[in-house]
Amino acid sequence: MGLAKRIIPCLDVANGRVVKGVQFVDIRDAGDPVEVAKRYDQQGADEITFLDITASSDQRDTLIDTVAQVASQVFIPLTVGGGVRSVEDIRRLLNAGADKVSINTAAIHRPEFVKEAADRFGSQCIVVAIDAKRVSHEHEPLRWEIFTHGGRKATGIDAILWAQKMVEFGAGELLVTSMDKDGTKSGFDLELTRTIADNVTVPVIASGGVGQLNDLVEGVVDGHAQAVLAASIFHFGQHTIAEAKQAMQDAGVEVRL
Amino acid sequence: MNNKLIVVVDYGMGNLRSVTKAAEHVAPSGCHIKISQNASDITNADAIIFPGQGAAKACMQAIKEHNLNDALLQAAQSKPFLGICMGLQVLMSHSNENNGVDCLNRIEGTVEKFQSSPEAKIPHMGWNQIHQHHDHPMWHKIPQDSRFYFVHSYYVSPTNPQMIQGTTEYANLTFASCLAEGQLFAIQAHPEKSAQAGLQLFKNFMTWPIESA
Q1: Which of A2, A5, A226 sits opposite B169 (nearest CB)?
Q2: Cα Rg for chain A, rounded, in angstroms?
Q3: Is residue B213 part of a domain?
């Protein structure tokens, strides 16, 4: 008996619509965030993450509406990320019904922002997203750096030290994405996930690279993550959340069934 | 049981939208839910939902600033009262958060911090089981050991173990995740984020009059 490991489907939204095609055979409008979120809730998702991929300021109101609609009908935790740049952005998202916000680039530009956000709203709702890429050469000790712009731009910041700094600044959770693995369907970067998870006191969500159910299991068992996040494996009907939970349970991982 | 007024107490600590939406989602007809920060509304309500988020010190300050101290204490003695998360913790005598804060003292006991370890990350965040200790109307139709969503770094430790209605295991200890006495029921987890189990709890609360008078 104890705390369950979490499975979190991640949805990209733009202009109030789910994009990057979700394919459920029996839902009317696969672009409707409410319908998609409800479906994942029914399947047993432990949380839902929305990533706003437009994130330009004039479309902010649409995102707020989307969050409000989902939060009034789906009663599991909701995290929203993408373009979170100010305390005001966070306030509006939380008021609309988001439970947590995920901060990425804005933290790199000004790390104190994380501190201000955590002081104001509490660490429990501040997730820091860490996009990391391996920079060590073969035969060298493993080393990762923070990258921005979808993994194209190096920052020179060491990923492990950054993770620790963000926790010190008040992050309540870390969403760790391997930019080497993202989109490859070849599994998480388990060394990255494990190195961060073993060196911070807050929960870590593993992200980037899930191609099959066993990848999710490995993220928890070998990556030491408290939660695993995936997109395409669920969106395209390859697997349901329930199947993922079953695979976890079969591997001896405690889940909410 | 018609026209029951349930007040969700707004003292500026955290977002009440989710709590209100979840309660509305399962409210029986005739049950009205109102968000309010007025002591008079609390006094006039048939039942109270008392949520809360953030640090203990800030919560107690906000309660004082809104002059809700007496109205809350009175309501917590006299009518169905549902405390959620910080709404449980500030009912205790004293919290050890923020170098020590005196709280409402409705329930004798303290609020303590979890010790983090490689196996137990802090905050305690996610779905954990609540083991029901007694048969209570608030557990109606909620299976034993159901999972609820938790997010917290502190837990309550009541002086009187008789008040413990539910316990949860985390960080090498079994802590009180639900306390109850008379018409008071307070829970550390977030029923508004706990899917079916949480919605059932709200439903139970709204149909839990225990009108003995």
Answers
A1: A2
A2: 17
A3: no
Cα gap A70→A3, rounded to integer Å: 26
CA dihedral A106, A112, A115, A119 (to 10 degrees): -100
> What integer is the mean pLDDT of A38-55?
91
| Mean pLDDT along residues A191-199 | 98
**Look-up: residue for tokens 């889940």?**
A255
- What does the pLDDT average to over B43-47? 96
Tell me the mean pLDDT in the region A11-25: 79
Token pair 């870390």 in the structure block, residue: A174
* pLDDT attached to residue A24: 64
Tell me, what's the pLDDT at B212?
39
Among the partner residues A71, A172, A173, nearest to B17 by beta-carbon distance: A71
Q: Tell me the domains of chain A and their CATH numbers.
A: 6-250 (3.20.20.70)
Higher local confidence (pLDDT), B212 or B27: B27
In angstroms, what separates the C-alpha of A153 from chain B's closest C-alpha?
A: 31
Active site (catalytic) residues of A:
12, 131
Q: How far is B193 from chain A (nearest CA, A)?
A: 4
**If 0-12 CB within 10 Å is exposed, 13-18 middle and 19+ buried, where does residue A242 land?**
middle
A64 interaction partners in chain B (CB closer than 8 Å): none
| pLDDT score at B116 | 85
Per the structure, the complete domain to which residue B161 belongs is given by 4-206
In a domain, B116, yes or no: yes
In a domain, B212, yes or no: no
Mean pLDDT of A40-69: 87
